[in-house]
């Protein structure tokens, strides 16, 4: 028996035969055997179950026929019709890039968190205006000469320098302790982004603190030694709020320190700078910026609760649960509005101070935000709205106080203008 016959007998029954018949191609002679039998299996076979002789093959003649049907491929030369130039790279290599003075200034300025200057500038403005209101209520328009605009400007500059220096020192010590390294929502980050060397950040922060302290010393020589005490307390709070491993902000003292500094300390200090005396009424007014600033610091801690916990920084936010954090935040905001009502509602009170209630729509946004979100991104939006709320609240309060002092003395102005 031939090899071909053995192959046909052993082939499985499941194989499908496909025969291709060709017509007679020459001289009218009978049919020539021109059939090419291509046998393909309907199933996938494995090498273990099939012998080499059983694998179907395609006759060589069929492959030659198929190759004659393929179109000829011709290769043509492709030449550029116009000159090609390499474009200027969008990003220059670090070795070739040099920042200008304006770029460095912008980097430093953004790293010092200028938006947060509202926390210190607004209570200083409130204390200064309270001193002006007191002068106008006692002596009328003639008392304007006893208000010192130069002290106001120098004092405001001193407060701003102290806060900017505190922000840079905070960045330095946060870097040392691994705080906010993965927080993309936090401001500053001059060191974390590799923009400025850590020692340069610390050095410039200390320079700003020294500049603010020097201005405060000059003001204390002009207004009296109690102002020196206010300045010394502010300087210590600015440095030790985040400096050293036993920083005040890491010992759950951040909120009390923020309340004292951004409330009574700056407000009463600004009032004393103009009047050289203390006042219990000014202390009551100072509670409002203090409570609002504390609410801002607390929601900032709520946003950073995970990063602070990983770095070992203890705050009230990562000690209390989310529910108690919300209650504390709402209590701080409500306390500021309660103090406003206590000041503006009595019979002989400056009722125009209640203009600050125009911030109630912003308050609704803040309250709804803190109640509805527990994500860091959502809390960051609440933080921004809280800062906006404090800015408008104190600004409108100042306007109301000025109107309350100016309107009663307006009839005296024409008589003073006459010879």
From TrEMBL:
Biological process annotations from GO: menaquinone biosynthetic process; vitamin K biosynthetic process
Biased composition (Basic and acidic residues): 7-23
Catalytic reaction annotation: an all-trans-polyprenyl diphosphate + 1,4-dihydroxy-2-naphthoate + H(+) = a 2-demethylmenaquinol + CO2 + diphosphate
Compartments where found: Cell membrane; Membrane
Keyword Metal-binding: no
Pathway(s) of this molecule: Quinol/quinone metabolism; menaquinone biosynthesis; menaquinol from 1,4-dihydroxy-2-naphthoate: step 1/2
The keyword Cell membrane is annotated on this UniProt entry: yes
Principal location class: membrane
EC number per UniProt: 2.5.1.74
GO cellular component entries: plasma membrane
Stored InterPro entries: MenA, UbiA_prenyltransferase, UbiA_sf, UBIAD1
Membrane topology qualifier: Multi-pass membrane protein
Keywords assigned: Cell membrane, Membrane, Menaquinone biosynthesis, Transferase, Transmembrane, Transmembrane helix
Domain of life: Bacteria
Molecular function in Gene Ontology: 1,4-dihydroxy-2-naphthoate polyprenyltransferase activity
Family named by the database record: Belongs to the MenA family. Type 1 subfamily.
Function: Conversion of 1,4-dihydroxy-2-naphthoate (DHNA) to demethylmenaquinone (DMK).
Protein name in UniProt: 1,4-dihydroxy-2-naphthoate octaprenyltransferase
Source organism (scientific name): Thermogemmatispora tikiterensis
